[in-house]
Amino acid sequence: MRKTYKMLSLFLGIAFLALVLTGCGASSSGGKRIVRIGHNQATDHPTHVALLEFERYVESKLGDKYNVEVYPSELLGSQTDMVQLTQTGAIDFCVASNSILETFSDNYTLFNMPYLFASSEAYHASMDDPDIVGPIFDSTKKAGFEAVTWIDAGTRNFYTVSTPIESPADLKGLKIRVQQSPTNVEMMRLLGGSATPMGFGEVYTALQSKIIDGAENNEMALTSNGHGDVCKFYSYDMHQMIPDILIGNCAFLDGLSPEERAIFQEGFDLVNQVEREEWTKSVEAAKERAANDQGVQFLYPDTAPFQEICLPMHQTVLDQYPDLKPFYDAIQVHNKTLASEGGAGNE
Ligand code: GCU
Known about the structure:
The protein is an alpha/beta fold. Helix content is about 45%, strand content about 20%. It folds into 2 domains: about 20-155 and about 240-285, 3-Layer(aba) Sandwich (D-Maltodextrin-Binding Protein, domain 2), CATH 3.40.190.170; about 155-240 and about 295-320, D-Maltodextrin-Binding Protein, domain 2. Strands 1, 2, 3, 4, 5 and 11 form a 6-stranded mixed β-sheet that branches. Strands 9-6-10-12 form a 4-stranded mixed β-sheet, with helices on one face. Strands 7-8 form a two-stranded parallel ribbon. A hairpin with a 2-residue loop joins β1 (about 30) and β2 (about 30-40). The radius of gyration is 20 Å and the shape is globular. The relative contact order is 0.16. It binds alpha-D-glucopyranuronic acid. Alpha-D-glucopyranuronic acid (GCU) binds near residues 40 and 79. Alpha-D-glucopyranuronic acid binds near residues 40, 153, 200 and 244.
């Protein structure tokens, strides 16, 4: 039954995508250029709210020429699919996790390192620092896409169906879903769990059918994606702060006039700002809903043993990609000035 359902939704997804990208989805409608943006979150998620703000803003300024369309919930495919579609110009923008971008450019490995940022303040300051993100965001231009802004995705922590994670030893033998990135697989290996890479859209079913024992993500995954219906323990080990990245097709961006480009840029800045404001509120609400309605128990283990295991990865990554060292050092400056003031779970 589930297989039939999966096949059917896959078929419908492909049919929808074909429809959008051809015939009625032609890139101009009524003389206006359609600007397509895909992402993988539900419509209640801060990312969607922020992109709708972008749509409103750009259309308020350039509505006679551009018609912005936002496609949520993997309607245009998984993040990996959407990055490829953006690369070729089949769509114009998509939101991809920094983890996924690691498979397109080694430079993105930097922001996937576990325990890279000392606090969420240091994380935000680093991602707002043009000297750190600028060269990395531009580094995929030859491949046809560039990053236009970053989007907060909080802190990633482990959550499981039935095993409370109080220390790394508790991960032993557990199958934990990770994003499809070599850094995440290696982190899981070091921590002793069994890394199971898969796309975001497959996680709920994998948890429900016990193909995996748990996953790792921010709190929104519990509510917005329903993982808290199945996983009853969420453990603040705080292993990563991985941003989402809004990427755009270079040919589209380069084809904008300087005036249009400036307005799009204001729109990208708005995405970042609106999402950040929404994020804080949404995470608070998600924690409350997960605890009260889904019966999720939040745990606050000592993060030191997790850090101790993961920290050697920094040197391994820097040895492998020495070009990342200046950016890594610049992050350490933010870490020094903005060392953690809050505890685990403080966004
Ligand atoms: C977060 C992130 C998404 C990502 C997902 C994942 O929700 O915002 O961009 O796809 O994690 O774990 O795959």
